[in-house]
Specification:
Distance between the termini: 21 Å
Number of strands: 5
Radius of gyration: 16 Å
CATH superfamily: Gcn5-related N-acetyltransferase (GNAT)
CATH architecture: 3-Layer(aba) Sandwich
Shape: globular
Strand order of the largest sheet: 1-2-3-5-4
Number of domains: 1
CATH class: Alpha Beta
Helix content: 40-55%
């Protein structure tokens, strides 16, 4: 899943589905740790490190285990990039946790370049990749 603007995505989601999401996720968010992580995710787009990057972003990218190794992931990635390009996007950011080495290798294989690090959640480092669509 990708978005042209992460901050706008979260604003729109909260406006349109906020109450429903709260009812669904409230029982899961009742721990302070989970509530804090949810808040950190929502405010990440406003962090200084995020503001110097393009708005377009891959929010989530996953393939079911049964379909891994069948070249489905590269096809899905390239289709998402094609759709971004149709929208006039020139660069897409990809933020992944430091322990996501498999994801890092995948994005590098697809041509994304690691351009830095950030921290979406306190105490955790995340790699920032950029994929050029020009």
């Amino acid at each position: 899943m990708g978005t042209l603007d992460c901050a706008e995505f979260y604003r729109d989601f909260l406006k349109r589905k906020g109450l429903k999401a709260l009812r669904v996720f409230l029982p899961r968010l009742l721990s302070w740790t989970r509530l804090t992580k949810a808040f950190e995710t929502l405010v990440y787009p406003t962090k200084k490190s995020a503001q110097t990057l393009p708005d377009a972003e891959i929010l989530s990218f996953a393939v079911l285990p049964a379909y891994r190794g069948a070249d489905l992931a590269p096809a899905l990635f390239l289709e998402l990039m094609r759709r971004f390009k149709l929208q006039g996007v020139e660069q897409v950011k990809i933020v992944t946790g430091e322990g996501q080495e498999r994801a890092h290798r995948f994005y590098e294989k697809m041509g994304a370049k690691r351009v830095g690090w950030t921290s979406v959640h306190k105490g955790q480092n995340d790699s920032i990749f950029l994929f050029e669509l020009r």
